[in-house]
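Sharing a chain and its predicted structure for anyone who wants a worked example. Both blocks are below, sequence first, tokens second.
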Amino acid sequence: MINANKSKITIEKERQETFSKKIDEIKRTFHAKIGTIKDKQGRDLMEKEDIKKRWREYTEELYKKDTQSIDENDGSTIELEPDILESEIKWALECIANNKAPGIDEIPAELFKILGDDAVKILLAICQQIWKTQQWPKDWKRSIYIPIPKKGSAKECSNYRTIALISHASKIMLKILQA
């Protein structure tokens, strides 16, 4: 039985090493092409920094939230939900799909799963802290936006669909909050 468990662990480590090597290989060989994009006034932007600034501006506008909050509290006492449980972390971790691109922290979901209970303990402490303070870690709030072209002019930001890559740790917390 012990040898079978060691074999499983060895196989998982080899798979993770292969996975990491593939990621490194892709990072070295893939270089996104930055052409021109138009600003709000319709002028062509050709400098890399101007293009990045325009994409940031566009995605912020696209995803900005209504900053006005409505106070629905009628003066009655609000009962807080209980703290996040270890079982919720385990459940959320099981729900996270494998072989998905990581967020800005570059930590794949498979790493959390391989670490097992150690990862659960760390994530539990972080998620409970977020729950109590309502403050998310900086990297958990950052996303990598991948523009995917749609029909139309490739110079218009609105002619792209965007995919936001967020950290898997953040996905775990979000999954718990959505449950």
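Comments welcome. The chain has one domain: 22-63+83-178.
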